[in-house]
Design a protein that fits this description.
By secondary structure, the chain is an alpha+beta fold. The chain folds into four domains: 63 residues; 75 residues, no CATH class; 96 residues; 106 residues, no CATH class. It has eight helices and 20 strands. Strands 9-5-6-8-3-10 form a six-stranded antiparallel β-sheet, with no helix packed on it. Strands 11, 12, 13, 14 and 15 form a five-stranded mixed β-sheet that branches. A hairpin with a 5-residue loop joins strand 5 and strand 6.
Length: 400
């Protein structure tokens, strides 16, 4: 009576409405067509409960079926599926921060006392008790959420007020950690791993280095000529028959090993960082690559709010800034210039109004390496630079 299974098109099953309708039809065939089986009746509620139970079973079976497909699997299903490709989810780390606590003499602040970053909202809990003897006391605190980090002087809030604890602050930044890998990040890294064994050397190098934990962004160039060649117009930095790899972060050992394993024989590597890799015979080979220099550029946006669009200056500007920073963190590659058109598109797309159109109109975009050099032109970066946009370097000015 209930349809569920797998055929050449994939998994199929009846949905809740269909299951309930078939139960109702079966009951009326037994007790008569005039039997009242609506949701207001006890019999109708019983049939609804049975239909929901069957639907829950079908959903569970469908989840198991989809769990073998990395394109749609989520959570633990995706983690297990990616292991077939030798790709494990990056579990992330908990940051630690040393917090200076001002404590009244004789008072005891118990372990687990929570403090908070006033900017990011990151919460930390003390790992040991502290007393007021010799206040202020320096207490180590652990983040409650993986990937949380804090700059110096930002952990100043007391989450759970405790007798004797009057003030907190962190003199230094928290330890640098990574957040737990999201489903989308894991799925992307798994897809890259399947592309890594390509017959194209450059594709293989790019995929292999990008799949290395902590690398961030990667750009690869090749000069297959006998002359020096530009990576970017006018620089003449790439020697004959060589490749250049630029990354934003990562382990030198892992990058060097990937370069040696994947580059073609006889091809040189160019860069400002060097790492020595030994082959199977113990012969040393020097691999070179470049770590991109981050350029914390300044951005000023002048805009008008569309009347009645529901923008809301405070929340709307925060959404625009968050979208621009996310774009910079993920999409901007080494060497890539920052274009005013891109900024405009991202800013307007971040705040859609009640009518489905952008809630703001961008009047002008100014870019510069510093706030004093901003101009209404695109920002040009060198081949070994990467744009780094911080929230505090974005200025938004609303026009009347």
């Amino acid at each position: 009576m209930i349809s569920i299974g797998i055929d050449e098109s994939g998994f199929y099953r009846d949905r809740l409405e269909t299951i309930l309708a078939r139960y109702v039809a079966a009951a009326k065939a037994i007790y008569g067509a005039d039997r009242q089986l609506g949701p207001e009746t006890s019999d109708g509620q019983l049939l609804g409960a049975l239909a929901e139970a069957v639907d829950d079973c079908g959903q569970a079976i469908e989840d198991v079926y989809n769990g073998r497909n990395p394109d749609v699997a989520t959570g633990q299903n995706l983690t297990s599926t990616c292991r077939f490709n030798g790709v494990n989810r990056l579990v992330g780390d908990y940051a630690y921060v040393n917090v200076s606590m001002s404590i009244t003499a004789g008072a005891v602040v118990p372990a687990g006392t929570q403090v908070q970053d006033e900017d990011t909202g990151a919460v930390y809990a003390s790992v040991a008790a502290a007393t007021g003897t010799g206040s202020p006391q320096l207490v180590t605190c652990k983040a409650l959420v993986k990937g949380s980090t804090s700059a110096a002087g930002k952990v100043v809030k007391i989450v759970n007020p405790t007798y004797g604890l009057t003030a907190v602050t962190n003199l230094n930044a928290s330890t640098v950690v990574s957040a737990e890998e999201t489903d989308e990040q894991l799925r992307t890294r798994r897809n890259l791993s399947t592309a890594a064994p390509t017959s194209g050397y450059l594709d293989s190098i790019w995929a292999g280095i990008l799949a290395t934990p902590g690398v961030g962004k990667v750009k690869v160039w090749e000069n297959d000529t006998g002359n020096y060649q530009d990576v970017k117009a006018g620089d003449q930095v790439l020697p004959p028959h060589s490749i250049a790899v630029v990354v934003t972060a990562g382990s030198a050992t892992a990058i060097g090993a990937t370069l040696y394993a994947r580059k073609s024989p006889g091809t040189g590597t160019m860069g400002t960082s060097e790492v020595v890799v030994a082959d199977s015979l113990g012969i040393a080979h020097t691999m070179r690559y470049t770590v991109a220099t981050p350029v914390e550029y300044s951005l000023r946006i002048t805009y008008k709010e569309r009347a009645g669009a529901g923008f809301g200056s405070e929340g709307g500007e925060a959404a625009v800034k968050a979208a621009l920073v996310a774009w910079s963190n993920v999409k901007q590659l080494p060497m890539e210039d920052v274009y005013r058109g891109w900024v405009t598109a991202i800013a307007q797309g971040a705040v859609i109004g009640l009518d489905g159109l952008p809630a703001i109109v961008i009047e002008d975009v100014q870019l510069g390496r510093t706030s004093g050099t901003r101009a209404s032109t695109d920002l040009t970066l060198l081949w070994n630079e990467v744009g780094d946009l911080l929230t505090e370097n974005i200025v938004m000015e609303k026009l009347p």
